[in-house]
């Protein structure tokens, strides 16, 4: 039901004009429309600016595409607009709560998606560096309030040694810390503004497991050498471009062409270890890639059940779990060899 006591003729008019004639009532529906969004070639330019710009290393020539895919989302629709998106544009109509949690403002959601996008760029860079054998380093992202490290370490500190052992990945720090007990004191060596320092930190107790020690920092990785990777896409949010970004960086810094010069698209989150994770809206992303002329689509293995329901046309949809899978799929496709796909066995 739309509005109690409103004549049918008025309701019919409201479907067109979006409100009740002669009133300030706007008849929007609590639903969102999701459809295929634009694609961006991460090997190319947007308005004359490279999507990915790399400094500090020779960049190899590339061809073909590595298209990142997106989902368009429309909210604040009238009933007529929602019906149009469903019937004419074949969008999915979903409750607004599925994409916009209750009590979260549009601005808060925008900031969350923007932060997730930036985080995916950082993870993509680290995953690419590790694949290429380039050095990385551990950077303090944050220090927990009242934690053992609170008075000793600062955000942006580069950790070089923990308990006398060199570290280049956050996982190494975690492993070394867990080899100790709560109450133990460890030496942490770091660089702060390129100046070396050492802190003696007495480990606390992990509140989630009293048997485990607590240092009290969150960490990330970054390239340790001269290579700098800059990403130049604006007004896009979420973590789902991570895999494609990482592949593009690898392609630009490697001889030859990962895609064999073919038109490739894909989606998936990326972890620093190169593992690829699932994302939302994959059916729309497949359809957007198909409409953009992609020949091969790289899909996270955990999205394959949903991917099988999408209309991929003549496009091959490959199933991948990590960066190596994605590279193998492109090599096999370009060479005419069988590709592990999302098709049911």
UniProtKB/TrEMBL annotation:
Example GO BP: protein catabolic process
Residue span(s) of domain Lon proteolytic: 238-327
GO MF entries: ATP binding; ATP-dependent peptidase activity; serine-type endopeptidase activity
InterPro entries according to UniProt: Lon_proteolytic, Lon_Prtase, PDZ, PDZ_sf, Ribosomal_Su5_D2-typ_SF, Ribsml_uS5_D2-typ_fold_subgr
Domain PDZ: 137-203
Protein name from the UniProt record: PDZ domain-containing protein
